Amino acid sequence: MSVKVLIPTALQKFANDQATLECTGSNISELLESLEQNCPGIKARLCDEKGEPRRFLNLYVNDEDIRFLDGTKTSLNDGDQVSIVPAVAGG
Q1: Kind and range of the H or E element at 90?
Q2: Residue-wise over 54-74: b if at least 16 C-beta within 10 A, else e?
Q3: In angstroms, rounded to a whole number, what is the distance separating the alpha carbons of residues 51 and 61?
Q4: How far apart are CA 37 and CA 25, in angstroms?
Q5: Is 83 strand, coil or helix?
Q6: Rounded to an integer, what distance in angstroms lies between the CA atom of residue 53 and that of residue 77?
Q7: At a CB cut-off of 8 Å and minimum separation 6, what does 81 contact?
Q8: What's the CA gap between 67 and 72, in Å, rounded?
Q9: pLDDT tens column, 39-50
Q10: Could you give the angle at the alpha carbon of 12 between the alpha carbons of 10 and 15, nearest 5°?
Q11: What keywords were assigned to this record (predicted)?
């Protein structure tokens, strides 16, 4: 199963300067492991010590925030698109 992952500019250095990657996984957790295999070091930037997405990152599956779905257990289907979106703050 192939899932398209959109990589934000700040993390593209871990993805050989690519903005999109094709990865595999039946859920977000497996996808993060696949992403780490393809791009060593990226998971530490995306996840905390427990393997959960960091607070300042938002993950979307086909425009749906995984926080409102099943979190890292959110199921993925062939052809889905996962967007990694850093939170923006300021004042």
Answers
A1: none
A2: eeeebbbbeeeebeeeeebeb
A3: 18
A4: 12
A5: strand
A6: 20
A7: 3, 4, 5, 6, 61, 62
A8: 8
A9: 999 999 999 999
A10: 150
A11: Transferase
Q: Which token pair is 58?
A: 């938002």
Q: Is the pLDDT confidence value at 90 over 80?
A: no
Q: Which two tokens stand for residue 33?
A: 């492991």
Report all structural domains of the chain as residue ranges with CATH numbers, in order of start.
Answer: 2-86 (3.10.20.30)
Q: Give one DSSP letter per residue of 12-76, joined into a string.
A: GGGGTT-SEEEE--SBHHHHHHHHHHHSTTHHHHHB-TTSPBPTTEEEEETTEEGGGTTGGG-B-
